[in-house]
Specification:
By secondary structure, this protein is mainly alpha-helical. It has helices spanning 2-19, 21-39, 42-62, 68-88, 103-122, 125-138, 145-158, 163-175, 179-193, 197-210, 217-229, 234-246, 250-261, 267-295. Helix 3 (42-62) packs antiparallel against helix 4 (68-88), helix 7 (145-158) packs antiparallel against helix 8 and helix 9 (179-193) runs antiparallel to helix 10.
């Protein structure tokens, strides 16, 4: 955590340096603008052009090339053009270089406050605390899995709405032989994450084995919900295969496990499913051979 806040502080200092840059450059820009305006002779050039054109217009009148009416019309046109050019080049007076200096600390304060509030609202400080707790246990000599569970339970008490806490807790509860706590943690995770198919499948699996590999009404309802959302969900199909195998319905078990086999992504689960299919086929053959002997 100290390293995180040090990084955040460093980034804020860099941001503040850029925010204060206009204030630090204000004097140089002000002086440059003053020199530019002092060296700008656009108005004098426009006036010189006006005078040349007016002189040419007067000469044309004196030579009789234009009458008085056309002369007046031309002179009014020149006057209007000069006024428009002058208005277009009119500049606002320069402000003092430090006239807006009070806005800089206000902006800096606003940025710092927004950064801190935004991180508290959207940041991952809870996940960082969770990671720190895990690392603390892993780096403690002689620490057991129960020690890790205890630290995670403390984090669950301080941040009960963090789904990552419960996603870590429920498999650990299974490993240390506490299926009831595993179910509670998984149900809390489902409350936070929604009724995702993968979470429902794990909940159905735990409850199935807690019930002694029995397809209770609750487990059956979960499997129906899972397969309604994803008919190829491998865990749910695997549960149905186990229930059919235990009931002696080996052909159904093989069918469920073959469908489940296509959905498993890891080789270990797939190999276990193939082994189950092989045993079910052997039992099916033994049942068929036994039935033939009885017939004979």
């Amino acid at each position: 955590m100290p390293m995180l806040w040090l990084s955040i502080g460093t980034l804020l200092l860099i941001a503040l340096w850029f925010l204060s840059l206009p204030l630090r450059r204000a004097r140089a820009i002000h002086d440059w603008q003053q020199r530019f305006e002092a060296d700008d002779h656009a108005e004098a050039q426009n006036l010189a052009v006006y005078e040349r054109r007016l002189s040419a217009l007067k000469s044309a009148r004196d030579r009789g090339e234009i009458d008085v009416a056309r002369f007046e019309e031309g002179r009014h046109e020149l006057d209007r053009n000069l006024l428009e050019d002058t208005e277009a080049h009119r500049r606002m007076p320069l402000r003092r270089p430090l006239s807006g200096r009070l806005m800089i600390p206000l902006v800096i304060t606003a940025v710092m406050a927004a950064s801190m509030i935004g991180y508290r609202w959207l940041g991952a400080d809870g996940d960082l605390a969770l990671h720190a707790a895990q690392q603390d246990v892993l780096n403690t000599p002689g620490a057991s899995m129960k020690t890790l569970v205890g630290r995670l339970e403390e984090e669950a008490g301080t941040q009960p709405d963090n789904p990552k806490v419960w996603s870590l807790l429920f498999p650990l509860y299974q490993k240390i032989g506490q299926p009831g706590q595993a179910i509670d943690a998984l149900e809390r995770l489902i409350e936070l994450e929604g009724r995702r198919v993968d979470l429902l499948a794990q909940l159905a699996q735990i409850k199935f084995f807690v019930a002694g590999r029995s397809l209770t009404d609750e487990v059956h309802a979960l499997i129906d919900e899972i397969l309604d959302k994803d008919p190829r969900e491998p865990t749910a199909l695997g549960i149905l295969g186990v229930e059919a195998f235990d009931d002696g319905r080996y052909e159904q078990a093989i069918n469920y496990w073959r469908r489940a086999l296509a959905g498993f992504g890891d080789n270990e689960s797939a190999q276990a499913m193939r082994s189950g299919i092989a045993v079910a086929r052997q039992r099916l053959e033994e049942t068929a051979n036994g039935a033939e002997r009885v017939t004979d």
